[in-house]
Design a protein that fits this description.
This protein is α+β, with helices and mostly antiparallel strands and about 130 residues long. The chain has three helices and six strands. It has a domain of about 90 residues: Beta-lactamase Inhibitory Protein, Chain:B, domain 1 (2-Layer Sandwich). The strands form two sheets. It has a four-stranded antiparallel beta sheet, with helices on one face. The protein has a two-stranded antiparallel sheet with strand order 1-2. Strand 1 and strand 2 form a beta hairpin.
C-alpha cells in the first residue's frame, strides 16, 4: 500500500501561475508610461513649458510640479489649460485671497490659493 504525500501549496502549478501573473502586474505598475515626459527650459527669465507627448493643459502630477509659489494665475491657467473653478474668495486688509480647483476627475484635482492673483500655496489630491 502506497500513500501519496500532498505537495506543499507553493509547489503546485496553480500557485506558481498565480505568482507569475501577480509579479507581471506589479512590474507593469512600477514601469509606468515612459513617453509622458515634460521638459522645463529656461530662456532668460521666462519659463517655457514644452511637452513631449501629452496635449497641452493636462492636469497631472507633472504639470502640478510646474506650478510654483509666485506664479501668476494666468500662467497657472496656461499650465493646466483651464481657468479652474473658484472655490472661495475673501479679503484680508488690502489683500484678496482666492482658491481655485483644477479637476481631472472627481477625486483627482489640484487646488491653488492665490494672494492678489499670485500663487500663495498649492495642494493636490490623487494626481
Amino acid at each position: 500500500m502506497t500513500t501519496s504525500v500532498a505537495k506543499p501549496f507553493y509547489k503546485k502549478w496553480r500557485f506558481i501561475v498565480l505568482m507569475v501573473i501577480v509579479g507581471l502586474i506589479i512590474l507593469g505598475s512600477l514601469v509606468g508610461n515612459k513617453g509622458d515626459k515634460l521638459s522645463n527650459q529656461t530662456a532668460g527669465n521666462n519659463n517655457q513649458i514644452e511637452k513631449v507627448s501629452k496635449p497641452k493643459g493636462a492636469i497631472d502630477m507633472e504639470h502640478f510640479k510646474l506650478v510654483e509659489i509666485g506664479l501668476t494665475k494666468s500662467k497657472v491657467d496656461e499650465i493646466f489649460g483651464s481657468e479652474g473653478e473658484m472655490s472661495s474668495e475673501y479679503k484680508i486688509s488690502d489683500n484678496k485671497y482666492s482658491t481655485y480647483i483644477y479637476k481631472r476627475a472627481s477625486f483627482e484635482m489640484a487646488t491653488v490659493t492665490y494672494k492678489d492673483n499670485i500663487v500663495e500655496s498649492k495642494m493636490q489630491t490623487g494626481l
